[in-house]
Amino acid sequence: MSPLLTPSFRTSPFLSPFTPLSHPFLTRINPLCKGLRKGVTTFLQLPFNAADYFLSQACSPLSQNVLSLKKMTDIQQLNNPENSRSKKVKSVLSIAGFDGTAGAGSYADAKSIAATGCYATHVLSCLSIQNGEGVKDIHYFPNGAIQQQLEAVFADIYPDSIKIGLLPQQQQMQEVADFLADYKGFIVVDPVMVSSSGHALMKAADYAFYRKHIFSIASVLCPNLDELSLMLGKKLTNLADMQAVESEVRQLGIPAVLVKGGHVEGDQLTAMLIQKDAETSYIHSQRIASENTRGTGCALSSALASYLALGHPMLEACQLASQYVHQAIVCGQDLALGKSRGPLDHFFTASTLLRF
């Protein structure tokens, strides 16, 4: 793998991270901030980028000067004739529903894809009327609308990977499956069947159709425990339950299935990655006591699509996506936004489009 794509978890799960207190210039001229950063990281057990955010208030004037200096440097580099050659940017297509509060659906996908270094394109599957309190209604597009959107996107910006979210009707499922039948890139499927507020987003009668047509084009399926329970017709609540149905998950015939751990009971969260012709892998994390967890499934699946587009192997991409979501929850604990459950802090550290 190219060293340019190797992540550095000490600061960020992305390439070339920049946060005000991690910049070499600032740490050279302000050793006190550097020491405080290390102390906060150790004492509060925060990732470095969360510590940066925590401490940035104390050094904000100096931090802003460094940010301005970096922006000037970036502009100078872009204006350099030697750097004027066009460079490839990876794009990720999100096929998902609209959410006007941007906590879930296509807007949440866009934030996660951008934060992980790729360019987001979109095909809207429906117009959902929702907020943090729940889904109020869903308006559907006429037949052919999704196909037309796909044709327009593919004609201009061919996606390096695709994330499929909510597809509430069989006609939409058919249009997506037919159009992507010959697509050779990664397709990440987030089987959005029930909203986090408990609203059914897919009719039971449509699931068999969904399984036949969408599972067949998926590179990786990302159900949470509730969704997997609906798929298998069994109540699953913990890691032991997940392990007990491993053989049934393999029988779905999908190259990879990442069973998300957010709905697992207890403080220790475990996601399970089941790959065809490979041993089962586990990704562990600690539960974060936060009310701002809306859209975590959207964030994880779209971040996973980004990391696959960037060339990471499946297990590594799943680990990176899981860490991205974990840190976005950590850094979004104190967000005060609206009257209901809030979103993650998708942009908890600065990031730019990765150029190749």
TrEMBL record:
Protein name: hydroxymethylpyrimidine kinase
InterPro entries: HMP/HMP-P_kinase_dom, PM/HMP-P_kinase-1, Ribokinase-like
Record domain Pyridoxamine kinase/Phosphomethylpyrimidine kinase: where: 99-344
Pfam name, any one: Phos_pyr_kin
GO cellular component terms given for this protein: cytosol
Protein keywords: Kinase, Transferase
Upper classification of the organism: Bacteria, Pseudomonadati, Bacteroidota, Sphingobacteriia, Sphingobacteriales
EC number per UniProt: 2.7.1.49
GO molecular function: hydroxymethylpyrimidine kinase activity; phosphomethylpyrimidine kinase activity
Pathway the protein takes part in: Cofactor biosynthesis; thiamine diphosphate biosynthesis
Keyword Magnesium assigned: no
GO BP annotations, alphabetical order: thiamine biosynthetic process
Kinase as UniProt keyword: yes
